[in-house]
Every structure is written in C-alpha cells, then in structure tokens.
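Lab channel / #folding
Pinned by the channel admin:
"Please post every new chain as: sequence first, then the structure tokens as a reply. Keep commentary short and put observations after the output so the thread stays searchable."

First post following the new format, from NK:
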Amino acid sequence: MNAREWLGSGGPAAPDIAVLGAPISRASISPSEAWSTPPAFRDALARFPTWDAEHGIDVASLLPHDLGDVPGDRDDADASAAHARLDAAAAGAARAAPAVFVIGGDNSLTRPAMLGMMSARPEEEWGLITIDAHHDCRPADRGSRNGTPVRELIEAGLPGDRVAQIGISAFGNAREHAEWAAAHGVRVYSRASVLTASMSSVVTDAVSTLAHAGVSALYVDFDIDAVDRAFAPACPASLPGGLTPGELLAAAHALGREPRV
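Reply from TO:
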C-alpha cells in the first residue's frame, strides 16, 4: 500500500488524523498557483510507501480521514469567503480527530485554520510554531494576506510568548516586522541558528519554551518558502540560503512526535 492508498483507506469512524485541503491563493502577495497544491500533494503520495525506514515508523498504523478540499477562492474576488469556509471546516476536523493536517494553499490559511481549531477546543491553551523564512507580521490593513497571519492571530488574542518561529531569513523581513515580533514576545530561531545547532535541537527548545509559557496544544505552520530556493523554485517567496529538505523533514519528524501538536 502506498501513501496515497493509505490516505484514502480510512473514514469517519474514530480517525487518528483528519486531512483537509485548502486551495486558497488569492490572498498571496505574490501571484501563485497555490490553489493547485492539495490535489498535487495527494497525487504525489502515490510515489511513497507508508514505511519510514530511518525511524522505523509505519504511518499505516494511523487511521486517516480525508475530508477533501474546502471550496477555494478561484471564483471569488478575494479569499475572505474561502477563509470563512476553512475556519468552519477546520473546527469540524478538530472535533472529528485528535490531529488535523491542512494542505495549503497560500499561508494566509494559517489564521482561519488555527482559529477554527481553537474554537473547537477552547479548553486548550494554544500555541503556534511556524517553519518559515518570514515573520508574517505585516499589518492586515489590506485584508488577510499570506504575510499577515501571525500578526492577526496575536492581535486576536494569541499571546506572543506562545509563538515560536523557526527558519527566519536574515534578508527576508522588514525591520519593523522583526521589531513588532520581538516587542510581542515571539521566540525567533533564525536560519543561522538551525545551522549552528540542529533542527531537532531547535524544535526541542521551541516546544520547551512554549510549554513553559503554558501551551497545551500546538498548531504548526510549515511554509514552503522556508526551504532554499534551489529546492523550491516555484515558490515565489523562497530565498537562497534557506532550509534543506532534510532539515524540513527533521522538523516534521520532531514535531510529529510531540503530543501537543
């Protein structure tokens, strides 16, 4: 059984993980085809087994429920209606399964997806870890965009000291955005810090820091622009000097083992 077959093998009866596609791209600052990613992601899974030989893990031990795609924004003037649909769908997914995996779509989806999960589980103390080259702390004066979700979430009430950002690029952010993040207590791990230590140790420190701040549940945002442009040439905001695919996989493995995620 390949990973694509595994994803389609589950159902609504007590799933371990709910999977949701979010084909959203109109909120992207740079023009993109991010709306096409969810079906391409699912198709690509057919080339992979479920067995991870390096870690001795078979994801087939988990029962998935693929909820399909939320109606996207290709036929809309902007992404606002799609964001509202995603908020509701993410809440439903979080009620249906203990873990939720959202396939983007541009990174504006982080705000509605996380808010939906937070509304479904209000008893949790939520935190956010981003794997991203950018702070995404632009003001949302032109609406929710892929550069605004972290700021919007903090302004909506998420404490800044419950946010950690990994992979921030040295030349990928405006000074005022970095200063805004620092002023609100966001814990930042630069791309250089991952090189100096290791991805696994950085993730461990980030999780420990947020746990110390009282976090009991974590939303993790993987933005592909954190990866070096050599490996993600179709991503408009990827930059030279970014993470390697191996480092991204290391982050996914370390965070996937964390029960708060």
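NK: The CA atoms of residues 5 and 87 lie 27 Å apart.
TO: also worth noting, The longest strand covers residues 17-22.
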